[in-house]
Amino acid sequence: MKHFVLAALLLPSLALADVFLQSRSGRVVRADAPVPGFPQPRVSMRDFAGIAAERFTVIPVSGGNVRLCQGALCLTVEGNATDTAAPVALASYTGVDGQQWAFEPSSVSGYFRLRNKLGTYLDAVWSGTRAGLPLWTWSSVESDSQLFRTLEPFTLTPSSVPAHCPTGPVDVDRSGGLVSVDFHGSPWVHLELELRPTADRRTLEAETVFDAWGTDILAALHVTGRWVDTVATMPGTRTIGAFPVNMESEVRFRAPAAGFEFGLCADGEILTRVPASGPVRLFELIGDTGNDDGSNDWNCGCDAQFRRADFHPITVGLE
């Protein structure tokens, strides 16, 4: 019964709790895609992505043990083998000992070991820590790959990054008064954004970098900007224990020329671009305008500028 009590302390809610299983190495347990010749999906240690294949439902069974399932499939010692080095996979639950697991205390605070009813422990092959290693059973060694904690899945959509005014023109002496330069046509635009946790892992920040270059070699106009914005805060006092890797989005393109525009301030067309990957759903910006495109007046009016970034929902693991 001590294992049941420990699990209740480590999990937000033991009964039917959805959790990520993160090892002390920082990797998480993930169900792999089916492989020809293997009827049961294998499991391995992977870099966190926050996807469904990394979520396990903790379901209490008799004797203070639990089963760890994804739908109808549960974490299983293949063949119900009592030996070490037995592969671990997902299989339909039948109640055998190789499908019943206990959260057993470890000597490392905040971490436990997963011992099956056969008496062996969940571990990565050869107690390795690199991403992609399959899971098997081993004797108790308390390596980082054998120590686990649970993280609560939390899905959020970060706030949009607001408009920002770039600095420009680059390499222009600002001491002599107002300077204003035109792109002279279609500028090249490079826009990238990285989403990441802050040092205290309580908030998410977005670092945006904007660059636009004129295509007229005589004009040599370059405007640029780099900004960091807080776009999400975790609930209560919770902190981020796992965050997806490669949370970067980027677009590069040649913006259309604005042509002649009437009025004192020809702001140009707002362009929308959808990056191929990463956390950003869409970018909005202004490239070429019908007037000069970069100035040192510290005012975005009439200039090339960053307008907005919207995000896809993302899932993190909360401590």
- The H-and-E topology, N to C, reads as HEEEEEEEEEEEEEEEEEEEEEEE
- Got a strand count? 23
Radius of gyration equals 27 Å
Order of the strands making up the biggest sheet: 7-6-5-4-1-12-23-17
What summary fits the major beta sheet?
8 strands, antiparallel
Give the number of domains. Answer: 2
Our measurement of the CA-to-CA distance between the termini, rounded to an integer number of angstroms, reads 25 Å
Q: DSSP strand (E) fraction?
A: 35-45%
Class per helix and strand makeup = mainly beta
Mean pLDDT over the residues: 85
What global shape is seen?
Answer: elongated
Unreliable runs, pLDDT <50, ≥5 residues?
A: 1-13, 171-179
Give the helix proportion (percent range). under 10%
- SS field, number of helical segments: 1
Description:
The protein contains one helix and 23 strands. The chain is an all-beta fold. The strands form seven sheets. It has an eight-stranded antiparallel β-sheet with strand order 7-6-5-4-1-12-23-17, with no helix packed on it. Strands 16-15-14-18 form a four-stranded antiparallel β-sheet, with no helix packed on it. β4 (55-60) and β5 form a beta hairpin. The two termini are 25 Å apart.
